[in-house]
Amino acid sequence: MSNQQRTKSQAGRSSSMKQVKGKVGRVARVPEHAMSASLEGLVTQLLALLGEDPTRSGLEETPKRVAKALTFFTKGYQENIDDLVNDALFPIDYDEMVIVRDIDFFSLCEHHLLPFFGKCHVGYIPDQRVVGLSKIPRIVDAFSRRLQVQERLTVDIAQTIQDKLRPIGVGVVIEARHLCMMMRGVEKQNTVAVTSHMLGAFRKQQQTRDEFLKLIRPAAPETG
């Protein structure tokens, strides 16, 4: 690859990442009824290309079911983060760590459109205001219900909390299993991918980061 081609490729990747990062609110897409009809047609074609008969018993309703499922799996594109958060910010004199751990999530890998799923742990240190606890899982859902990679999902969640709350620090850790690694490719059934993103005090202060990582660990089983 020439230097000119390499520069263009890097610029393209940078532009793409900026576009993805900017998609925090709604992303325009076709009306739901039109999208559903289009998806049903595409699934019907896919079944035929795979060697199936889309009209046989058992598959007749499959295109409709798949279209409905895909619409649900990607509903995060229609979520407005401001609407989720702004009515639940509360002033408070509290500057200790707030943690919501073991948030279950499901997402679709953008490379193979296969699920990855697991748990998300979120912590932050408030600076004069907190967000309603239920809003943190909603933020996780808003970003996980999109085509994602785990690394970007981790950053999206942390950066959104940083932007909306302006806390002293934010930490996000995600542990996930990827069907694209379990069903195909390397076919490793027990592999867990772990990603983290730390901002503010969580990045700058080792003691804060260590406290967060300790608190999100599962409690050791009692013995005796």
Furnish the topology, listing elements before pairings:
Elements: H1 3-22, H2 32-49, H3 62-73, H4 81-85, E1 89-91, E2 98-109, E3 115-125, E4 129-131, H5 135-144, E5 147-148, H6 150-165, E6 169-178, H7 179-182, E7 193-200, H8 201-204, H9 206-215
Parallel strand pairs: 2-5
Antiparallel strand pairs: 1-4, 2-3, 3-6, 6-7
Helix pairs in contact: 2-3, 5-6
Give an account of the 3D structure:
By secondary structure, this protein is an alpha+beta fold. It has two domains: 3-75, Orthogonal Bundle (GTP Cyclohydrolase I, Chain A, domain 1), CATH 1.10.286.10; 89-215, GTP cyclohydrolase I, C-terminal domain/NADPH-dependent 7-cyano-7-deazaguanine reductase, N-terminal domain (GTP Cyclohydrolase I, domain 2). The protein contains nine helices and seven strands; from the N terminus they run ααααββββαβαβαβαα. The strands form two sheets. The protein has a five-stranded mixed beta sheet, sandwiched between helices. A hairpin with a 5-residue loop joins strand 2 and strand 3. The radius of gyration is 21 Å and the shape is globular. The relative contact order is 0.12.
How many strand segments?
7
- CATH homology-level superfamily of the largest domain: GTP cyclohydrolase I, C-terminal domain/NADPH-dependent 7-cyano-7-deazaguanine reductase, N-terminal domain
What number of domains?
Answer: 2
Order of helices and strands: HHHHEEEEHEHEHEHH
As a percent range, the share of helical residues equals 40-55%
Secondary structure class reads: alpha+beta
Distance between the termini: 64 Å
Please tell me how large the radius of gyration is: 21 Å
How would the global form be characterised? globular
